[in-house]
Amino acid sequence: MTQAPDDADARRAIAPVICYPPETLPQPDLALYARARTGARKVAEVVAAPREAACFEVAAGQFFRISSVEGPQVGDLNLWNAQDLRERFYSGKTRALHGTHVTAGERLWSSFPHMRPMATITGDTLGWYGIDEYGGSVHDVIGTRCDPYTNNLLSGGQYHHCCHSNLTRALADHTGLSLAEAEPHVHDVLNVFMCTGFTRETGQYFMKASPVRPGDYLEFFAEIDLLGALSACPGGDCSAEHSSDSAACHPLLIEVFTPEEGALEGWVSPPVNGYDRSHGR
Question: For the whole prediction, is pTM greater than 0.70?
């Protein structure tokens, strides 16, 4: 370690500044969404089997819910514009705008150059969890997804049911793309129900047993037409490991609900970002 300068304590004592104050972000009409959700009817459901992924489609103005149904289970979520896979969920910018973990009232943002809200979280039965004594919280946008490449580096193994591979297979099967064509569209995830944080001493990413129980859910309002893929992580509740068949795993249920006609009067799907893309030229 290098020798600290004489004014080290003074440098450390400088107060932080929030990089992206959220007050000027476009705000969702949560009261309208809540009214629209009342009386909405279920129109579809999909089950992500343990150590597998499933795709689902949600039209703009519909709701979708991810639920624990049999036991504690973490899910890795990808979202795309249903008409253009190049527009996809941007976990890094979502993290910068809202924080390391997301909950009701916050939004999932799409990638450049589109950068607009893809979905708004409207319900979270784990919203009570907050931040625990270890700095852990649920529904993170800091982990990337378990993947076979990192697993190979760490263990030398060839494990094919990491979330990255699960999502790749699901997207390929749903779209008709080959695995090689589908894989580049798989992206950093929202870790639904996962309890994570960073260690205070070393700044390392950690996971711990998810507090999710059967009946818990995370619900969203689709701001644009969405194609989603959800992997039921091989780590189960992620209390120990995540790239093997050793953990107890359970399915996850995805349900889609459509509001009654006229329930969203006045709402419009957000346009793509207004930046002119001239980049100073």
Answer: yes
